[in-house]
Design goal:
Blueprint (H helix, E strand, L loop, with lengths): L4 E8 L4 H12 L4 E7 L6 H4 L3 E3 L16 H6 L8 E6 L13 E6 L10 H6 L5 H22 L4 E4 L2 H11 L3 E3 L18 E4 L8 H11 L3 E4 L5 H7 L4 E5 L3 H10 L3 E3 L7 H8 L4 E4 L4 H4 L5 E4 L4 H14 L5 H8 L4 H20 L1
Parallel strand pairs: 1-2, 1-4, 2-3, 4-5, 5-6, 6-7, 8-9, 9-10, 11-12, 12-13
Helix pairs in contact: 7-12, 10-13
């Protein structure tokens, strides 16, 4: 691909699911330049750092990035993409709002339309935002940001959704169809070991993941729970946790693989758009106990899924009991086999075709 390509991601401040997609895109597009609102190279993989990365003028404020959404549209508009022929945005924030030049193609890999503006807006406003001043700001800016978000959807040439779940959200929010390409997971790098006596959660500690539900349930039932990750909910979760709930913070890739390999089961107490961590758990031969909404319904095979229908303590506890009754009969090899359809090779094959097709259009 000889044309100039720009990869745009909302922020590069850690290596979570969205950043793993950017990493895969960087491998597929070795000459692409990367643009992002906020950038901390010390927390980003060498694969991404090897590219030319341009951060917005908001970058000095990256410690407060979650509070700066109203400023992001203008910051995105400041990126000079005039010489680029193909723009690939990685989106669950405002990244798709960049202005591709006339004649260029814009492929948006969408993890989800912005949660805080659309499907989770009531929860953000009424349940998870404790400051009256912040609530007032949300009420003021939401209509304006929704208008901007809908308008920028028209700039996208082709949407790619990370799941059927998100494909439906894209259609509901923007009235656009999309191709489904699940995100890449290095499934071959995970392994299975006999279970030790603990359950596991992996992810950013944010409200919508409902980790508080798991902390409350396990604080009462006394079973060992390990939580890998950090985020704005850390202090609140730590405050309500009993001693059997252990917070590990950010862990290395090797330590994370070991945590997956040795856990009894992986927990997903909230709704995920897709859920890369669930694929990593399956690749380690571990079952998933989770809320029966979103990506879990597409990822986890029936034999390895212990689902509950409402994000409440009693249904969650019932799912744990069902898992414990079936634990000795589970087949780790079958769970590992089910994860292979989400491999990096599968992502590369599907995205390479989509990118090549759009590149051909820019030459016509």
């Amino acid at each position: 691909m000889n044309q100039r390509v720009a990869i745009v991601h909302y922020w590069l401040l850690g290596m979570r699911g969205g950043e793993k997609v950017v990493e895969a895109l960087c491998r597929l597009l070795p000459d692409a330049d990367v643009f992002t609102l906020f950038y901390d190279p010390s927390r980003i993989s060498p694969v991404i750092r090897a590219h030319r990365v341009t951060a917005s003028y908001l970058n000095p404020l990256r410690s407060f990035h979650r509070s700066l959404l109203p400023l992001m549209p203008r910051a995105l508009a400041s990126f000079d993409l005039r010489d680029y022929h193909l723009v690939v945005s990685s989106e669950s924030g405002p990244a798709k709002g960049v202005a591709a030049p006339p004649g260029a193609r814009h492929v948006c890999y969408c993890h989800t339309p912005m949660r805080y503006l659309w499907d989770l807006h009531p929860q953000y406003l009424n349940e998870w935002t404790r400051s009256p001043l912040k609530r007032a700001a949300i009420r003021y800016f939401t209509p304006r940001l929704r208008k901007w978000d809908l308008a920028t959807a028209c700039r996208v040439t082709q949407f790619v959704a990370n799941s059927q779940n998100v494909r439906a959200r894209i259609h509901k929010t923007y009235g656009r169809d999309s191709i489904v390409v699940p995100p890449p997971v290095a499934v071959e790098s995970f392994h299975h070991q006999p279970a030790e006596d603990y359950f596991l959660i992996v992810g950013e500690l944010v409200s919508y993941k409902r980790i508080d539900l798991a902390v409350r349930v396990f604080s009462k039932n006394g079973r060992a729970l390990r939580i890998a990750g950090d985020g704005p909910e850390y202090a609140r979760l730590k405050k309500i946790a009993a001693p059997n709930v252990q917070f590990l913070g950010r862990v290395s890739d090797d330590d994370l693989r070991s945590l997956y390999a040795r856990c009894r089961a992986f927990l997903m107490p909230g709704e995920e758009d897709f859920g890369i961590a669930m694929v990593e758990a399956l690749a380690s031969g571990k079952p998933v106990i989770g809320l029966a909404r979103g990506g879990i319904l597409e990822i986890v095979p029936e034999a390895g899924a212990f689902l509950f229908n409402a994000p409440e303590e009693s249904p969650f506890s019932d799912a744990i009991a069902r898992f414990e009754a079936a634990e000795s009969r589970l087949d780790p090899a079958a769970l590992q086999a089910s994860a292979r359809r989400f491999s990096t090779a599968e992502f590369d094959r599907k995205m390479r075709d989509i990118l090549a097709q759009n590149a051909r259009h820019t030459r016509e």
